[in-house]
Amino acid sequence: MHALETSRLLTEEYSAKILLATMGKPRSAFDLSDNLGIPIAACYRKINLLEGAGLLFCSERKLTQAGKRISMYKSRVKNAQIIFERNKIRAKLEMIDGTVEDYNYDIDMTALMTEMPTMAKA
């Protein structure tokens, strides 16, 4: 995943809510859905997306009183920064295990500069 994808994922409303809610104690999809006002289907989709990106993980499987197993999710992200610099976007993630992931997305400014004069005429 590169910086643009990472920044989109971190700033998308449901994803951001899920990551923030799971930075403390692990939570189930049903808890997240109920407490954050996210439809359960959308909640599971975002959980799968965040797991696939390595930003969320299943920390345990609990047995409910009804005898069913539910997954408890926890954020891997401790801190996140999205940085706009000249000709690039950078996403810097500090993970709970102490590692830092740095994603860079370089923008070809020459292509943008050649398009700008025509855009100004519009």
Brief write-up:
The protein is of the alpha+beta class and 122 residues long. It contains five helices and six strands, in the order ααβααβββββα.
Walkthrough of the structure:
The chain has 122 residues and is an alpha+beta fold. It has a single domain, classed as Arc Repressor Mutant, subunit A. The protein is 43% helix and 34% strand. The chain is built from five helices and six strands. The strands form two sheets. Strands 1-3-2 form a three-stranded antiparallel β-sheet. The chain has a three-stranded antiparallel β-sheet with strand order 4-5-6, covered by helices on one side. Strand 5 and strand 6 (100-106) form a beta hairpin. Helix 2 (13-21) crosses helix 4 and helix 3 packs across helix 4 (40-52). The mean pLDDT is 88.
SSE diagram, text form:
Elements (H helix, E strand, L loop, with lengths): L2 H9 L1 H9 L5 E2 H8 L3 H13 L3 E8 L5 E7 L1 E9 L2 E8 L4 E7 L2 H13 L1
Give me the Rg, rounded: 18 Å
Name the beta content range: 25-35%
Please identify the top-level CATH class. Mainly Alpha
Biggest sheet overview: 3 strands, antiparallel
- Low-confidence parts: none
Shape descriptor: elongated
For the structure shown, list the relevant keywords.
122 residues, alpha+beta, Arc Repressor Mutant, subunit A, 3-stranded antiparallel β-sheet, 5 helices, 34% strand, elongated
